[in-house]
Design brief:
This protein has 270 residues and is of the alpha/beta class. It folds into 3 domains: 94 residues, DNA polymerase, domain 1, CATH 1.10.150; 79 residues, Transcription elongation factor, GreA/GreB, N-terminal domain (Helix Hairpins, Orthogonal Bundle), CATH 1.10.287.180; 66 residues, Chitinase A, domain 3. Helix content is 45%, strand content 14%. It contains 8 helices and 7 strands, in the order αααααβααββββαββ. Strands 5-4-3-7-6 form a 5-stranded mixed beta sheet. Strands 1-2 form a two-stranded parallel sheet. Strand 6 and strand 7 form a beta hairpin. The longest helix has 29 residues. The radius of gyration is 22 Å and the shape is flat.
């Protein structure tokens, strides 16, 4: 941390300072990805609001099919490390920007027949939001294709940075479109109308901390719909696993790095 610590800036200002600190070459290749992350997280939000779950959530949204996937992660890690070096964050949040593991492929299609793709459970809201996002991405992809065409008209390909940036953006959008299309194809809509007294995916759950009395509210969703800022947690998260299948009034135990926490399920709404 620096001796004279400056006030913690907003995300947009932090990104500008980071990009200015880079060489022209690194700035050129980092600008698009850093600004995209800032827009997603909120340019007016303070850097102090960065959280490990939020960063991990962003990493999950990146597509493995993107040809520049690993380099994009490295550029974002450099930005997050910069926020630590400037004293704006206490920890190095770059460690939470983890690459997703690639699924192994078999030499034949036999394995895929034995293990067909699993259905993805989505709430109706989550399904609708993905459809809207897909339509927006397809529109952006058309614009990116047009930008590639216009940038390619510049015959000086030796230093055609706009062409490289346009191709990178198109590649990213194509990967996102494929990923959402695959998710929607495998999606099973959760029927929230059915009578189910237990906690299940799609339920809104209010928990009471037995030690502090604090109340927490979460919506249990699939891994495709997680949004920590809106209280939407995965059924595979520590809290999700603990409350899944439980009844109202039951006490659950959750193990965290700080120790064991105990919550009472105060309300379940479907």
């Amino acid at each position: 941390m620096k001796g004279n610590q400056s006030p913690i800036p907003a995300m947009a200002e932090a990104a500008t300072r980071f990009l200015v600190s880079l060489s022209p070459e690194k700035k050129e290749v980092s600008q698009q990805e850093v600004n995209q992350f800032v827009r997603w997280y909120g340019g007016e939000r303070s850097v102090a609001e960065l959280t490990p779950p939020g960063i991990a959530n962003y990493a999950e949204r990146l597509s493995l099919s993107d040809t520049d996937y690993k380099r994009k992660l490295e550029r974002l890690r450099a930005f997050l490390l910069y926020t630590k070096e400037e004293g704006w964050t206490k920890d190095n949040l770059a460690v939470h920007l983890k690459a997703k593991a690639k699924k192994s492929k078999t030499s034949s299609g036999a394995l895929s027949h034995r293990n067909p793709p699993k259905a993805i459970c989505l709430t109706q809201q989550g399904y609708d939001e993905l459809e809207v996002e897909l339509a927006e991405l397809k529109e952006q992809r058309l614009q990116a294709i047009d930008e590639v065409r216009r940038a390619a008209e510049d015959k000086d390909f030796r230093e055609n940075s706009p062409l490289d940036a346009a191709k990178e953006q198109r590649s990213y959008l194509e990967g996102q479109v494929r990923e959402i299309e695959e998710t929607l194809k495998l999606a099973t809509i959760i029927n929230s109308e059915k009578t189910n007294p237990k906690v299940s995916v799609g339920a809104k759950v209010t928990l009471g901390d037995l030690a502090s009395g604090e109340e927490l509210s979460y919506t249990l969703v699939s891994s495709k719909e997680i949004d920590p800022d809106r209280g939407r947690i995965s059924d595979a998260s520590p809290i999700g696993k603990a409350i899944m299948g439980q009844n109202q009034g039951e006490v659950v135990e959750i193990t965290t790095p700080a120790g064991k926490l105990h919550y009472r399920i105060k309300q379940i709404r479907h």
